[in-house]
């Protein structure tokens, strides 16, 4: 499964990069395949391991902010691995035509 999520603190002002970095650090230290862009962090793995990482990422932000916003989107597709790479490669292949 691939989960794309965004976690942000609320009530801490406009500059939230430091808080978001705490969440991304948890994801990167998980060892699961992941990517971060300007809007979301995507992580790939089995349901329980991915959700555990998301939960810990939220907790990392929550430790410093009393209120946290979480947006999550999941692609649940059993048997598919390396979706983070293969989905992008498919789009790039179509674009190169």
From TrEMBL:
Which residue windows are transmembrane per the record?
Answer: none
Q: Extract one GO cellular component term from the record.
A: cytosol
**Per the database record, which ranges form the Thiamine-binding protein domain?**
3-92
Per its UniProt record, what Pfam families does this chain match? Thiamine_BP (PF01910)
InterPro entries reported in the protein's UniProt record: MTH1187/YkoF-like, Thiamine_BP, UPF0045_domain
Question: So what family is this one in?
Answer: Belongs to the UPF0045 family.
Q: What is this protein called?
A: MTH1187 family thiamine-binding protein
Taxonomic lineage is:
Bacteria, Bacillati, Actinomycetota, Actinomycetes, Kitasatosporales
